[in-house]
Amino acid sequence: WWAEAWNTRGDCLYFLERFDEAHAAFERALSLKPHDGRTLYNLSFMLARRGEPGAALARIACYFDGGFIID
């Protein structure tokens, strides 16, 4: 359940517009549960909001491609 806790922390930080900290929390969640769809979605949404559409698409594609980041 630690991955879910880090993901929820990322959600909270995102809504506070603390994007760097949210990014770190989502990455921590993924380190614990690498193929978690909810975390990958949240991370991609946050990256898109931060103006990084390429990184956002790579993260969401990672989910659909079985967990591998596409460069």
SSE diagram, text form:
Blueprint: H1 2-15, H2 19-32, H3 37-49, H4 53-64
Helix pairs in contact: 1-2, 1-3, 2-3, 3-4
Task: Give your account of this protein's structure.
This protein is an all-alpha fold and 71 residues long. It has four helices and no strands. The longest helix is centred in the first third of the chain and has 14 residues, at 2-15. The chain is flat and about 30 Å long. The termini are far apart.
Strand content: under 5%
SSE string: HHHH
Distance between the termini: 29 Å
Provide the structure class.
Answer: mainly alpha
Q: How many strands appear in the DSSP assignment?
A: 0
Structural Rg: 11 Å
The residue-averaged pLDDT reads 88
**Helical content, roughly?**
over 70%
For the biggest sheet, the summary is: none
User: Low-confidence stretches at least 5 residues in length (pLDDT < 50)?
Assistant: none
Could you give a quick summary of the protein structure above?
The chain is mainly α and 71 residues long. It has four helices and no strands.
Core attributes:
71 residues; 4 helices; mainly alpha; 75% helix; 0% strand; single chain
